[in-house]
Amino acid sequence: MSSFVNLVHNENMKIYRRPRTWAMVGILILAVALMAGIVKWDESRSVSRDWKQNIAQQNEQIRQHLETEGASLSPDAKQRVEHELKLNEYYLEHNRNPEQSTLWDVMNNSAMLLVLVTLLTVIVAADMIAAEFSWGTVKLLLIGPASRSKVMLSKYTATLGFALFLLVVCFLSAFGLGVLFYGTEGLVQPYVTIAADGRIQEGSMLLHLLQSYGFKVVELIMYVTFAFMVSAAFRSSSMAIAFSLLFMMLGHPIVQILSPFEWVKYLLFANIDLSQYVRGTPLRPEMTMPFSIGVLLAYYAVFHFIAWLLFTKRDVAG
Fold first, then answer.
1. Distances (CA, A) of 169 to 117, 124, 163, 287
2. Among residues 231, 254, 200, 221, which one has the least CA distance to residue 127?
3. Beta 200-203 vs 191-194: how paired, if at all?
4. Burial, 223: exposed, middle or buried (Cβ in 10 Å; 0-12, 13-18, 19+)?
């Protein structure tokens, strides 16, 4: 165990001693700050002092719309309009301005920036093994007492540790900027949703935020694991990084194009976004969350097996 810890420590030093790593951290913090500034600017542009009057007018327009055109609306469209009306009534009843931002708006928007965390971590993951061949240091790494499997596992562990580090940076910087811009008054604000039966439900903002982060973390782990497998396949780190990023960017558009075909549900990108089930918009109507989780676990195991096979069986002579 101590040898494995030393291997992970060695891999961490390779990651955090590189200027590139801290440039990535700076880019992430800058992106969070830019996002928080946009939220603040949008609030200053849209918040009205007469918000109650505006909502009351909206409600009157919605009621008139339902009376005149309600019969011609589809059930889903009519439900969306009715839900909007109920939310507006909730805001008026609880004296809550929906246009007024809080630190939770910054925090929830930071979840969208986890795609940047994924992108930065994929770059590191794709470079972890391929760079050893590019630099010619792979022989020095493998002549030690540790097995190839343990070396590979230490690299993967260090990569996930870097991903966790970026997640913490993203979360804390968003929280700090949220407090700076909006204070802590909104900490007790509930997360408001409408149930299937039309009832207003109040939940925890923190749990909603953690759920949003959790779905993004699933994507992060899958992309990183794929990039790690690609890194084991290439001797050039630039090729490994380029192929991993290309895979990450083209996957979703390809799946959307292929969505009419039933077999698309077995592809990785059709299942990687588990939040589609919370939104009620799965790619295919027959798809369920347990099905997607099973598909993701299968891909996860295959990626690890291929990475292990390529790394442990590769000839490093010459």
1. 10, 16, 10, 34
2. 231
3. antiparallel
4. buried
Contact, 277 vs 268, CB < 8 A? no
For residue 255 the two structure tokens come to 């799946």
DSSP state of 189: P
The tens digit of pLDDT for each residue in 146-183 reads 787 888 888 899 999 999 999 999 999 999 999 998 88
Q: Which two tokens stand for residue 106?
A: 């910054």
Using CA atoms, how far apart are residues 181 and 36, in angstroms rounded to an integer? 8
Q: So what's the pLDDT on residue 23? A: 95
DSSP class of residue 144 equals: S
DSSP string covering 56-96, please? HHHHHHHHHHHHHHGGGS-HHHHHHHHHHHHHHHHHHHTT-
Question: Which residues lie below 8 Å from residue 227, measured CB to CB, with a gap of 6+?
Answer: 122, 125, 126, 240, 244, 248
**Which two structure tokens, joined as six digits, stand for 181?**
């811009």
Lowest-confidence segment of 3-17, 133-147, 231-245, 286-300 by average pLDDT: 133-147
Name residue 191's beta-bridge partners: 203
Both tokens of 8, joined, read 């992970």
pTM assigned to the model: 0.85
Task: List strand residue ranges (DSSP E) for 104-227, in order.
Answer: 191-194, 200-203
- pLDDT per residue as tens digits for the range 179-227: 998 888 778 888 888 876 778 888 889 999 999 999 999 999 999 899 8
203 strand-pairing partners = 191
User: Are 267 and 166 a contacting pair, CB within 8 Å?
Assistant: no
Q: For residues 275 and 107, give the distance between their C-alpha atoms in angstroms, rounded to a whole number.
A: 17
CB 174 within 8 A of CB 117: no
> Do 156 and 226 form a contact (C-beta atoms < 8 A)?
no
Per residue in 119-140, pLDDT (tens digit) is 899 888 888 877 777 666 666 6
Contact criterion met (CB below 8 Å) for 221 and 160: yes
pLDDT of res. 245: 83
174 touches 106 (CB < 8 A): yes
